[in-house]
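Possible regression after last week's pipeline update?

I re-ran a chain I had predicted before the update to compare outputs. Posting the input and the new output here so someone can diff against the archived version. Not blocking, just want to make sure nothing changed silently.
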Amino acid sequence: MHTFLSENVRKTILYDAPQQVCKLVKEMTNNRFKINLNRTGETEEILRKGEIQCGYSGIYYNTPQYRSLFFGCAIPFGLSPQEQTAWLYYKKNPDDELTFIQSIYKEKLGLNVIPFPAGATGGQMGGWFKAKINSLSDLKDKNKIVRIPGLGADVFKRLGMTTHDELSPPISVDEAIKRLKDGRFFAVEWTSPYDDIQLGLNQAANFYYYPGWWEPSTTFDVQVNINEWNKLPPYYQEIFKLACHETYTIILNEYEQKNSFALKEIRRQGVELLRFNDDVLEAAEKETKKLLELLSQTKYLRRFMTNGVVLKTEFERGQS
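New output (post-update):
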């Protein structure tokens, strides 16, 4: 198993999730089924070439041609944690072998991959900013770089901001925090209070915003090569599913519990806890709707799989 979670984020709750899956599988099979974890930071190869047996990741870290899969991870102004769980485990027919999201990977996109939810952050915060956001105009500055992944980055760009995914080569979260501290970045978001303190974000900026409207319930999963999956005996497959589901529950519960204590600590330190004003939220929701309408058009979905770069350009132009 490869994972995008490198040593840079060792102190976060999510860091332990892939190891938890491996540990549970080993324990439930009395050491007969062992999965080796490789913290390479790379998992997209499993989608493109299938050379990796399985990978732990958030699908929104992948390139534009897989953007239609982001619905299995995080959608701006999307589902609550409870709704997201129901969606991820939904089957059109109870007797179906695959959940609906699994069928999209295989039947709609032709990927030789089956995903299993194995971790969730719940509702996230809006990130750490170097200055207050008093109006929408404060966001319309190409020199104000924001670290943000997924469709949230597309919405920010439509609002006039520059996001870290436009930089080349990609940068680590450690580097993003350094740039926030020295002023090269205007804002950085990671997940929520507990993880953010562990990474030192509370020492890099003084304004902590909420809500994280771009990630109301972010899910991470184990993406398994179907050829490797089919090699497992059925009872090992069931054990693997249970290990992923248990990890999903454990990680979500940890965030819910630890974030409340961490938020109190952040307030005690004198950090300003601020809500995005209505103008910003309404503008962001409007651009999100335009973006999702564009994504829902069949002609654009076909182009996702063939030319993600062209489609990304159309997003930046604001065409819908």
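Follow-up from reviewer: compared with the archived run. Confidence is low (pLDDT under 50) at residues 304-320. Marking as no regression found.
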